[in-house]
Write a structure and sequence with these properties.
Length: 449
């Protein structure tokens, strides 16, 4: 039994290294932050949006129960939902019909209800009144527009029920039962995409159509970073354990050449793997998202939301550089691994740095995140190829080019750090036998005595 206890203690001691404990703590903190982000986004979806109403002044419907006005009905809905009467003008904005786009942008309006010029006369003559919905499409990950579209549909239903009650109470003798229960025609939708008004399309439909592209690259990058990173760190651990690294370092080759060669070779392999995974997963995700988009026939190229050859080249460059950055981090972490077993624990920080931006980009995207999250995303080099598709679809080439420049600098710095490590005794002896660590330990022992 004592032998078993000794073996268990030995294995636990080898596995519970400072690096592995730190990795777990970092993972807890990062996932707690991610939980806060998701909670914030869920909170947004549960919060009443800022909406607009246009061309309602002259469209007040006369009924025997009294006058029915779309603006007053919306006010009643919002006040019943807990919005104070003193703050109602912050939630329901009166939009100028001739200046809809600018007014919506100025006030941060999610969508606007536009009553037709004949709304009043149509309702009073027993016809459905036309209520158009006007949106502004803004990329924001998987949720991009779904919340606003869903909320607009719910409000249309509330307005319809409210008007129906008023009509039934004053015109119960009418024979058009379908009109009595559904007096509003709210099926006319318009969306501003890059400032251009598009008919018969909603942000939700656009988001569904783009879901394959917005999900594919983040998942591929995450998988490739974790896979290639694990291979590189494990390889360095094996080289130390088999003493082949010592032989390599004795050859008349510059350490910079060794490090750069290792990183570039692994980056090329990672990019090839990435393209292969992308091809396979494009078919997989296409089959998953097909039912969601089959009900709509949207030509993204006509909306200006299609990628060109230059865009794909920029995404490939961004992917390659992100892999190079990951490998630079792996080379630094691998330098502190004493053997193959300890190298396995070094992959945790890299995996976390790949998983966190994947969830953020897929869930809320760059444009749907607050400034703190944006700073975090920009700082993590793996985020940039994940964000590239969304940015290029939005015409934001500056963000992509800025990310490429940042990743080039990050990769060069990581190579320089790795070269310094390769020239030090840490690479062979490990951190525990480093002269600076030994000096620190000596000082502590001297202080105790």
């Amino acid at each position: 039994m004592s032998h078993l206890t000794n073996i268990i203690k030995k294995e636990i001691k080898e596995l519970l290294t400072p690096g592995s404990v730190a990795s777990v703590l970092i993972m807890v903190l990062l996932f707690a932050s991610l939980g806060g982000l998701i909670g914030e986004e869920i909170g947004k979806s549960a919060t009443l949006p800022v909406i607009g109403i246009s061309n309602y002044e002259d469209q007040t419907v006369d009924t025997k129960s009294g006058e029915w006005n779309a603006y007053d009905a919306l006010v009643n809905i919002y006040t019943a939902s807990g919005v104070p009467a003193s703050e109602i003008d912050d939630f329901i904005i009166k939009i100028d019909r001739d200046n809809i786009f600018d007014d919506m942008m100025e006030h941060g309006v999610s969508f606007t209800f536009l009553l037709s010029d004949t709304f009043k006369s149509d309702i009073e003559s027993g016809k459905k009144g036309v209520l158009e919905q006007v949106y502004i499409y803004e990329p924001s990950g998987m949720v991009g527009g779904t919340v606003s579209t869903t909320m607009a549909g719910q409000l249309v239903n509330y307005l319809e029920q409210d008007l129906s009650k008023s009509i039934v109470g004053s015109q119960s003798e009418m024979e058009h039962i379908s009109f009595l229960t559904s007096p509003i025609d709210g099926g006319h939708t318009y969306t501003y995409v890059k400032g251009e008004l598009q008919e018969d399309v909603t942000p939700s439909e656009i988001a569904n159509k783009l879901s394959g592209q917005t999900m594919l690259i983040p998942m591929i990058i995450m998988i490739i970073i974790m896979m290639v990173g694990s291979i590189v760190i494990s390889s360095m651990g094996s080289e130390k354990e088999n003493k082949t690294l010592e032989t390599l370092l004795t050859l008349p080759i510059k350490r910079t050449t060794i490090v750069t060669g290792k990183i570039l070779a692994a980056a090329v392999v990672g990019l090839v793997f990435g393209l292969a995974y992308m091809l396979g997963m494009s078919f997989y995700l296409g089959s998953l998202t097909a039912p969601a988009v089959s009900s709509t026939d949207i030509d993204l190229s006509k909306l200006g939301l299609a990628l060109g050859l230059t865009d794909y080249l920029l995404i490939m460059v961004s992917m390659f550089l992100s892999i190079a950055c990951a490998l630079g981090i792996c080379m630094i972490l691998g330098a502190f691994a004493k053997n193959y077993k300890s190298a396995q624990t070094m992959t945790m920080p890299l995996s976390i740095l790949a998983i966190i931006p994947m969830f953020i980009v897929m869930f809320s995207g760059w444009y749907g995140s607050n400034i703190v999250i944006q700073v975090l995303l920009f700082a993590i080099p793996f985020s940039h190829p994940m964000m590239a598709t969304e940015a290029l679809l939005n015409g934001d080439v500056t963000l992509v080019l800025g990310g490429i420049v940042y990743m080039v600098i990050f990769a060069l710095v990581s190579i320089l750090i790795t070269v310094r490590l390769y020239k030090s005794d840490i690479l062979i002896t490990g951190l525990s036998q480093n002269k600076y660590v030994e000096m620190l330990r000596g000082n502590r022992k001297h202080q105790k005595h």
